[in-house]
User: What shape does this take?
Amino acid sequence: MQLVIDIGNTVAKMAAFRGEELVEVAYTSNETLEELPHFFAKYPFKQAIWCSVVDLSAIATSRISTVRVPCLQFTHAVQTPIRNAYSTPETLGLDRLAAVVGAQQVQPGRDLLVIDAGTCVTYEFVDATGCYHGGNISPGLEMRLKAMHQFTSRLPLVPPEGELLEVGNSTETALRAGAIWGLQHEIEGYIRAFKHKYPQLLVFLTGGCRFSFDTNLKNIIFADKFLVLKGLNRIVLYNNE
Assistant: This one.
């Protein structure tokens, strides 16, 4: 079995895989990884991989050292099963790369657009030959709401949860509707543009945010919130084949 640890900006995910089968996912603090020893003790892990988009605390580093199996740190030097055409690969977010690997494993031989709607929204493209061309980065939902508050004098900070109208009838509903519908229209615009250029395109949507799409787009979208974990698992298997 494989242990996969994905340390994100807000939380850390831990996953147990049996080959390519996802067995369990658990969550823990990205600063302390306090649940890691308990999770590790649950399964007969033979190998592990970890990836972080934040600087590890001393406590988190110590916890990872308790993983008493071969443990691969996913860095830019680690080989992946896709070709990376990014012009500055050393600056590429490792979670972005792992998500692309995960999507390409699920749907090999297809043109893929991978959209990760988290703290930021990332748009990644990998073609049918398995070549990753790069992607775009955009502000996420909460970042948009915070920016409208922080960069103005009088606009309040509103939560993403709450009444969502087609046309806002108060400042609060106008801010929420503008952020949510604006982000959804942005995502749909990307999908339509790529679909026009690559007619056989498939789309993977991952991350914490969920959106509704019209019927013309639904049949090409796969929602998979564990895409990064699956990609990391594929990478550790690939490096041990």
About this structure: The longest helix spans residues 171-197. The chain has two domains: 1-73, 83-234. The chain has a mean pLDDT of 92. DSSP finds seven helices and eleven strands in the chain.
